[in-house]
Amino acid sequence: MSTLPEITGLFERLASNLTSLDPTAKNEDCLVGVFNPAISELNRSLNLEDEGSGVRVLDAALSLMCFKAPQVFESRVEYLVRTIVAIISSSISCKVSRFQRQEILLIGSSISRGDCTELIEACADVIGRLKVHGKLSLLLSYAVVRVAALSSCYLYLSPLTPILREQSVHERSNNVLKLLPHFPGEYSHKNHEIPFRLLLWYLDPLILKHDVSKILQDTVDRPFLCLNKEFHERMDWRSIIICLAFSPTMFVETRALLHNWFLSTGLASVLQLLIELVSVILDVVSRPLWWGISAEMGSKLPFSAAYFPYNHHLYRILSGSLSPDSFLHLVRIINLPISCTGKHSRPTIKKMPMKISTIDHKSLWAAAMNFPDWFFFASVLLFSEKSFEDDFYSKCGVAAPGTEKKHDIEPLCFSSAAARYIAWILSPADESYQDLLADWLAKLSGSWPLKQFGSDTYNKEIADYSKKLKKHRFPVYKGESTLSKEYNYKTIGLWLKEFQNIYLKIRNKTTSSSAFCEPILSYGLRFRHSVLFRRIPLGILIGCPYHLDEFACEMLLHYSATGTIPRYTGTRKHLKLDSEGYNDSVVQTEEYTKEEAAAGASLVFRLTDLVVSMAATLFETEESGLEFIFQVKVKTCRYLIKCIKKLLPFNDGIMLMDLFNRLLQWRSNQGQEVFQGCTDLDDVTNELRLKLCSL
């Protein structure tokens, strides 16, 4: 086994050889004089005699084989690099050590962590000059980083008494930073090889933090990015995802990092990135070939329990299909009390300070936050009619799932479970406050007038309308639906004011309750009681899109995006006559700000993604799912157009390009255009295209 001085000596020889090469020289004849000493030295090393015919024979042989001095020199550099790589790699071993009747498995490098620091430093000195020699720089840096990652940061006086060497850890991190500029950003790996990026993460966890921060910065700066699509199409992002899939330990650390950032900042973009990251990792595990992972490597990926070691039983439910029965099962698994009478009081409990362990990355609450489908499904249940299975499923054109215990569950239990689940998401630790929230939500659910009416007449209208849609494989835009709209913008506006008053009361309660929280939780609490609370009314739009006109949907969307209720005014000069001969004044909304328009458009895109995800598990037939998605898109279209028009005057090329790409994606179902004939949407799409051409 070579010692460290011998290895560093080879690095010195490599540096000397690289120095003798002048890459700026253009005249090959000028290079001959430079390389002749090198060739003569090579001759002397290959011949036993210092002087004699051997040298002349080799010179003549090289000349006859048409080898030129630079080629000889490059070959010498290549074989010197491969020699260093072979020597370094040979230091890695796996063996069993016996100590006092015990056997210990030792895996790693025989080169100590302190010596690896010197090794990385020697590699950093030559790696930049090796780039002109093709893949030699990557080959050498990979070997050095691999050995350093497998070396131990502990000093063993005996196999059972390790001592941490903190100084070597800090020195190694500083030297690894010198190799980062030469790190290839694209993803490439061979079977049975650890990816280069993953080795760097093991060497210095700050590199992982840096990689995640860069993605988060793009997410914040570019709100219209489709993260799922970007993770697959951007090679540097895909490299990060695949490395996380190869190392469940690093994924757990990344998820904990993002969760802690969310708790400390309360930023919706952080939570959104965390949600997408969890979704993408599950997708990589389920279909590795689509992500560019070979079948051999994909078959070796661990099961989902490795990525979610805490509360894995809950993750199995959360990643499963949506249904009322599975939702009730989820609520019971979380151990939330369900009251079929609508009352959610518990015995008086003395208020205790909230512990961060109740909402850290290992908690049940953190798991539920990674799957927002269930929160919005609970919002749908909260505002459903008396019988969810007989009403919601019939409106969406899907058969309700049959279960033996279906008739044993009172319909009120669904809305009660929904209220309890939402209250738990908003207040996971304070049980008394959670009860108060659940009671308020139950009363709010009862005040929603749609729950007071039967749906026989309405279901007949839905059935007739569905027959017309069945003529098309994909739903196609046919203008405004002729279905009756029980609730216009005036009804929704009054209801939202009542909802807002409840929110203000809850916010005041939260302010007084926040004194019992640890400081790191303050921003997370603000998020839950602002963004998540105003997302609750979206359950009306998702579950009852047929009952609402576009103006009512616009109010719901604008409130959910900004927290403000838009003001509408009717004007006679805009009086129009619809296809049914019904007169009503067209309502005009006050001007949105750029921030409100961006938040509104982003909400529409994310809501549609959410509905697509829900439809994939809610419906038994693809046709019913597509119809459901289409109806939500139709109801959100008017608001989206208004938001886009507000953003058009701004000369932000990147934002407008992201918006344009997202709009094209939104307009289609499975790649097929479904908004043919919608002139307003066509006009704003063309305006956006022309704007991009002018920038």
Task: Write up what this structure looks like.
The protein is built from 31 helices and ten strands. By secondary structure, the protein is mainly α. Strands 1-2 form a two-stranded antiparallel ribbon. Strand 9 and strand 10 (672-673) form a beta hairpin. Helix 1 (4-20) packs antiparallel against helix 4 and helix 24 (489-513) runs parallel beside helix 27 (550-562). The chain is globular, with a radius of gyration of 33 Å.
What are the salient characteristics of this protein?
695 residues, mainly alpha, two-stranded antiparallel sheet, two-stranded antiparallel ribbon, 31 helices, 10 strands, 62% helix, globular
What's the helix and strand layout?
Elements: H1 4-20, H2 28-46, H3 53-64, H4 69-89, E1 92-99, E2 102-109, H5 113-127, H6 136-150, E3 154-156, E4 162-164, H7 166-179, H8 196-203, H9 205-221, H10 227-233, H11 235-246, H12 248-265, H13 268-286, H14 295-298, H15 304-307, H16 312-318, H17 324-333, H18 364-369, H19 372-382, H20 388-396, H21 412-426, H22 431-447, H23 456-469, H24 489-513, H25 522-535, H26 538-543, H27 550-562, E5 568-570, E6 576-577, E7 583-584, E8 587-589, H28 594-618, H29 622-647, H30 653-666, E9 668-669, E10 672-673, H31 679-694
Antiparallel strand pairs: 1-2, 3-4, 5-8, 6-7, 9-10
Helix pairs in contact: 1-4, 1-5, 2-3, 2-4, 4-6, 5-6, 5-7, 6-8, 8-9, 10-11, 11-12, 11-13, 12-13, 12-25, 17-21, 19-21, 21-22, 22-24, 24-25, 24-27, 27-28, 27-29, 28-29, 29-31, 30-31
